[in-house]
Write a structure and sequence with these properties.
By secondary structure, the protein is mainly α. The chain is built from 17 helices and 4 strands. This is DUF2264 domain-containing protein.
Length: 406
Amino acid sequence: MKVTLVFITLLWMVGLMPITVQAQAKNDRAYWIHEMDRMARPVIRLLAHDSLRIGMPQVTSKNVDNREHRIQVQYVEVLGRVLCGISPWLALDDGPAEEKKLRQQYRTWTIQGLKNALDSNARDFMRFDLGGQQLVDASFIAAAMVRCPWLWENLDQSTKDRLADAIRTTRRFKPVFSNWLLFSAMNEAFLAKFGYDWDVMRVDYALQQLEQWYVGDGMYMDGPHYAYDYYNSFVIHPFLGGIMDVVETKTKAYNDMFGKIKKRNQRYAIIQERLINADGSFPPSGRSIIYRGAAFHHLADMAWKKRLPDELPVGQVRGALTAMLRKTMQSPSTYKDGWLTIGLYGDQPGLGDFYNNQGSPYLCSVLFLPLGLSADDAFWTAEELPWSAKRIWSGDDAKKDYSIGY
């Protein structure tokens, strides 16, 4: 019987036997879980055992500006980036027995790991006052908590207060006049959500400035000048959406702005889906391309929040994101000794930026946000549909794409 099952599985893998809709959907989620575990396990497990500093390689981009400093900050960096992606999955309570068992292990590791990171007597204690980069990565921890109240609720009070203090510490760093304004705002949104005093002005300044940087058709400038890269997805749209979710529970003053943001969120999701080629590749444009699947942070975020526009059926989005995940993970040199390499398709050091260290590529964990949806959710059970590029480049008819004016 086991031999038969293995043979059938092999037939599926080589494409000689059709896979039913249900089996394909189940196979997709299992693949995502496998890749999430492969990526997050070294980070979360080592931190839980107070051994992240011992086990994490000290790697930087060959173009690094200050190697010693970039290594110092890589621990907060990798923690924030992994948590930002896996936190919604930690909050689930359902799923197959094996997935539930794995989740329980991660819950245990994550809670203990956060205690270690915030305990000054632990080997893995993390300082948040070493440089401006920590404003960035504190905000990813803040975003993880905003996305997963379960995680916050299961921390002891001492750890909660230490985390709030650590995040407040980053107020000493002046954000770069760019998407960094949203890092400051997300930190304040975290404090607001969980009952701490928060700086309304930091949030207001970020929201008002981003409104000034909107250039049309769902796209923002990243500062005073427009850059063709993926920062609208790496940070701008997901953070605007996350900050909005908190602030609109506190005040109605931004209702008109938030109405526009929601429409822009949907338009940019449509643009994102069309960027994924038929084979799962996408244009390798702009800086920070070594964040791999984080180029589609926004599309994953919109799928998890169930805010996809009607033009994007969930089976189509799952198909596109799965193809992209497979493409970016398939190179044999994607990992070295169990750790992500600096590159887009494997180990490509020439693609590194001056600020990249071993923790940097782990922003691609945000692709796993839809794992925060139940295994029974339509995102996972719907029939896979050809995404736009796959449909068009196979010769099928497709709907025309149009820009928006708001």
